[in-house]
Amino acid sequence: MQTAPGESPDPSPPQSSAVGEKGLKDGALGLVSSVAIGLASTAPAYSLAATLGFIVLAVGLQSPIVVMLGFIPMLFIAYGYKAMNAVDPDCGTTFTWSARAFGPHTAWMGGWGIIIADIIVMANLAQIAGQYGFQLIGADGLAASRWWTALAGVIWIAVMTAICYVGIEISAALQKWLLSIELVLLAVLSVWALVKVYGDNAPAESLHVDASWFNPFEIGSASALTQGVLLAVFIYWGWDTAVSVNEETADRERTPGRAAVISTVLLLLIYILVTTSAQAFAGIGEKGIGLANPDNAGDVLGSFGDQVFGTEGFGGFLANLLILMVLTSAAASTQTTILPTARTSFSMATHKALPSVFARVHPRFLTPTWSTVVMGLVSIAFYAGLTAISENVLGDSVDSVGLGIAFYYGLTGFACVWYFRKVLTRSASDLWLKGILPGLGGLILLGLFCYAAFSVYADPEYGSTVIDLPVFGETGGVSVIGVGALVIGAVLMFIQRAVQGTWFRNPDVPVSVASKDDPKQAAPPAS
Length: 527
Prior knowledge:
The protein is an all-alpha fold. It has 19 helices and 4 strands. It has helices at residues 31-42, 44-59, 63-87, 94-102, 104-136, 140-143, 146-166, 168-197, 222-236, 241-244, 255-282, 300-309, 313-350, 370-389, 391-399, 401-419, 428-456, 477-499, 502-505, and strands at 466-469, 473-476, 513-514, 522-523. The strands form 2 sheets. Strands 1-2 form a two-stranded antiparallel ribbon. It has a two-stranded antiparallel sheet with strand order 3-4. Helix 3 (63-87) packs across helix 9 (222-236) and helix 5 (104-136) packs antiparallel against helix 16.
């Protein structure tokens, strides 16, 4: 096999103080950098701007409690990530851990779940980055053009791919700066909005915060609750990036897991503050700045930012900064979406579950080369293809990301329980943090996946796209895209097995179970 210029053909180069066992840069990240990457990957400003309106459309005034409910399975799964990472800090995360618990086939599908979810969401992230980039320079006409926005989005993906290629430390340093601007401005926006709500000149649409907003029993139906919680799960999604870079983190058995838990808790605080203040300021009306206005649903923050800050003086500066904040949020998430996908495919290749070309590491930057570049190219192709077909398909495909998230997060929770099943009675900590909480998180996400995929999203009336399937008839496009992506993964898995079946016939990560004597030591499972 020939090696491309500037690359190492050996996925496991000689060890040094700066090189880990797979050739990645060891010890490049600390706890603060890991938390920053975990938070930035969720893109708080972008996620709220693009999702909060749809949550309000689904559940009305109960959006704050729905955001809190979405946090519960995320925290539970974060504890599962923490426990599994302490045993096996592999950048393949769900892929490697599912192999230990359930075997090579389930592991391959877990890795595919990460890859496909990231590729689908990259299209929407690039589009938002393109739109806000033009708005920032006052080119509203270009921002309204689908093709100019697509071109800008492609450039964003290319730039962020290049940053990830050059090095993880540069990526982390950029995330700290972008995240700092983002969180400070979100806090200022929230406080400023609440001051106006309780001031003498409150907007006509404004509402005072009420306890009923935090009562889940006020939600009208199970369908509305499911839609709302899945949307809330989407806005939390991304904290696991802090774990996917574990092989480049100092104290990699402990730091990534701690960063994952810290990230989810910080996200809860951010989202509750912004959701409550936005709802109080704008109300849930269907006109004007109301959060239930369909015209504002795809960009809630931009629709009332001028109303909160004003358009002149320092307030005008903050309103423009708000546009920059959403832009940098989407851009940061574009970058941090590339990181876990590239490292998942890299890990799969080192274990011979993907072609070996994906295991190549740059000898200078110590980052995955082909895994990073291919992730960027596939994302660009997917984005361009969907843009050419229909913007409605693009929107439905982003909704379907929730199904991919529920799939691989839930699988990780179940893998944690099954792997640690023999040590759960050793202590209360083991029982709760390695058993009950990850298991409940997995069950919640499994229930959401099944109900949404085969009931809510499968309804032809849901979303903007309807696909006529030979056996099932007219089916909602969101369900077809989400479930169909996983089916495609199963087909590719069997193709990979036929072409290069080493991983499936003789995996180097055998099924095992945690030992009672030492949770880091694996013992053969009982027959």
